[in-house]
Amino acid sequence: MSNTRKTDQKPNATERMRTARAQAERSDRIRRRVVVAAASGTVLALAAGVAFAVGGSSGSSADTAANGPLVVPANAGGTDGTVITYGKADAPHTLEVYEDFRCPFCEQLETTTGKTIQQLADDGTYKIEYHLATFLDKNLGGKGSRTALAAAGAALNEGVDKFRAFHDVLYANQPDERSDAFGDVNHILDLAGQVPGLKTDGFVKAVQEGTYAPWAAKVNDEFNKSDVTGTPTVKLDGKKLDVLTNGKAASPDEFTALVKQVTG
C-alpha cells in the first residue's frame, strides 16, 4: 500500500519508481531473512521470529468477517473451540502441532513426515492437538492463511477425518508463501474436491460465505497467547521436539526416534 498522499495530479515517473523500488526492497528483505535463517541452521521457531514476526494478530475479529457471528465448527475442542484434536481421546500422550497453512517449513514437515505423524496417532501412541495461525497474512500480505483456516473449519464441521485429509491436501498443494493463492475461495474449493465426500452443500456454502472466518480469527488469537514464536512448533507432552535441523524437516525415522525419547 502506497503512503503517497492524494493530489489532483498523477504521481510523476520519479515518484512511481521510488514507490516501486521501496516495495521491491521490502520483498527482498523478507526473502533474504528466510534464506539466512534456514542457512544458519536456525529452526523455524527462530526463523519465523525474524522473518515472519509472530506477535501481532493478523486474524483478529476486526480483520476477518467482522460483521459475521462466531460459529464454532462441530468437533472443535479446547479453549473456546480453538483446538482441533485428531486421534484417540484416551491416548496416553499428547502431540501439540502449531502451524500456519502458508508456512513453507510446515509444508516441508507435513509432506516429509506427515504420514508418520498421523500413523502414530492412529496407533494410539498419542493424540494430536492442532493449534493453527494466520500470522503470515500480516507479514506477507493477503488473506490465504485465514481463508484456508476458515475452510479447514468447514471441513472439521464435516468430521475430524475430513479435516485431517483436507489439511494434508492444502500442504500438498501449498503455493509459494509470497503468493496469496489460498485467498481464492474457488481455488480452495477445487482443492477440497480431492477429499472424497468433503464437498457437501453445507461445506461449499460455508466456504463461500466465510462462515468460519470469525472462528479462524479466534483460533489465531489463541495461538498468539501461547509461548510459540514460529511454525512449525511441535511439542510432545509439553516437550519441544526438534523437527527441523538446518532448515530440513526430520525424516519419519528421526521423528519416531524423537517420540520414543519422550515416551520411553
UniProtKB/TrEMBL annotation:
Region (Disordered): 1-27
Keyword Signal found: yes
Segments forming domain Thioredoxin-like fold: 81-260
Keyword Plastid set for record: no
Domain of life: Bacteria
Family the UniProt entry places it in: Belongs to the thioredoxin family. DsbA subfamily.
Protein name, entry field: Thioredoxin domain-containing protein
Record organism: Kitasatospora cathayae
